[in-house]
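Human: Here is a favour to ask of a fellow structure person. Comparing notes only helps if you start from a blank page. Give me a protein, with the fold worked out from its sequence. Please set it down just below, with no commentary around it:

Assistant:
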Amino acid sequence: MEKNQIFIKTGTKYKKMTRELLEESNLAELIGDKNKMVGIKPNLVSPSDPANGGTTHPEIVAGILEYLKENGFKNSMILEGSWVGDRTADAFEVCGYRQLCEDYDVEFYDTQKDKSYTKDCCGLELKICESVKKVDFLINVPVMKGHCQTKITCALKNMKGLIPNTEKRHFHSMGLHKPIAHLNVGIHQDFIVVDNICGDLDFEDGGNPVVMNRIWTAMDPVLVDAYVCQQLHYKVSDVPYVKLAGELGVGCSDITKADIRVLGEDVQQNIPERRKVVEVADAVEEVDSCSACYGYLIPALDMLKQEGLLEKLHEKICIGQGYRGKTGELGVGNCTRNFKHHAEGCPPTENQIYEFLKEYISK
């Protein structure tokens, strides 16, 4: 496989598809030494069934583990940490990874419980989890999906699971795009297997899956994300961290240079252009909010919109770390605890936010 190639396969036998893609990609040759520690990084953002469109299907990881074993690789590990507000241990269970690890006798590293070290990532010092140092060859297994703050999330942003929770909060205070790009200088992903089975094209934690039944393989995370932008009807310039990562030398952000190959049947996909995030974002004043908090607010607003209640809300909803210690009328999350009205929690769930705002509107 060449650096500029993206291989795509469509079907419903996910483990088999994965193994066939890895064969076609010559992954064994790319890894080389059979004694290398191969790290596998799925997306277990929250305890949500992969069918909801937010987390990596375990069948894909099973396909990777079987391929590695069949090709004589002796050492592998899975490493991941959920977003702030949820426990990796819960996602590990709900998403089917406990059973996976037992079936394939592979160790799982919960990076939420990991120590960290500081690394200079092209001029930006960032904290990275210690378990990353154990990995000689990193296979990233992100989900192609939308994101309520950055519009898309796939290969580049999935590396956030390899930093401690304190650094995840810090990322949001820095504006997300710059630290995401610089993090990918500090953590090199060697190979990518994209779960494009049923990602939610609006929310990173799932709930509105769009079934596409595709899996991709690639080597360049920037090119992968540039292709995701194209698939979801965005320009690369709409997602600043993609272009910045390219400028930092992580990969190529010019999608015209991609060699995209569909293996097997070419199934045309009609990806909807509707973006619920855009439709309800005008009701929000956001300053440095964490993904979980903002990610729960947006679907709550969409629920109100569907019921015809959002148009009755005439006050902007404040959310984010930028409101700590400040006062105001209406806020969401503990960062707005000094507001006259606020939804408690760090983060509050979408149902809690929905009920809180529904009651506020009724009064």
